[in-house]
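This section describes the prediction task in plain terms. A model, or a person checking by hand, is given the sequence of a single protein chain and must write out its three-dimensional structure as a string of tokens. No templates, partner chains or ligands are provided. The sample shown here is typical of the held-out split.
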Amino acid sequence: MLVKATFAALLSVMTLPAFAADCAVTVESNDAMQFNTKEIVIDKTCKDFTVKLLHVGKLPAAAMGHNWVLTKEADKQAVATEGMKAGAAKDYVDDADPRVLAHTKVIGGGEETSVTFDVSKLSADEKYNFFCSFPGHYAIMHGVVKLSD
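The expected answer:
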């Protein structure tokens, strides 16, 4: 009888909904200059958020490299332009630019990287974009980041 009661109690706990926020996302990039998502929603209860970037293509970083950069929507163009000036050695990102809220390094086919950032730096009233700052990619490879309500 005790075994049945313990088993029933265990089953009831296992069926409870999970309330913990998912504070991470995996974004795939490929050799066709595409991300597999155009929108990332961050639960506002997350303290930190991690973006794992996978390059599912085959081309090397020098030919078809990708990174993931987060900025305010209004800063996207300027940050991308400054990133091109920073060059490959700096992963096409000016680290000293305060408009860069988070970024990964540039990766090539078969590689992965990640970045974790403080969610408290984001505001629900602001619009955010993510993009690849490899030269010529930002106009195609981009999306929006939103905080959940």
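For orientation: Confidence is low (pLDDT under 50) at residues 5-18.
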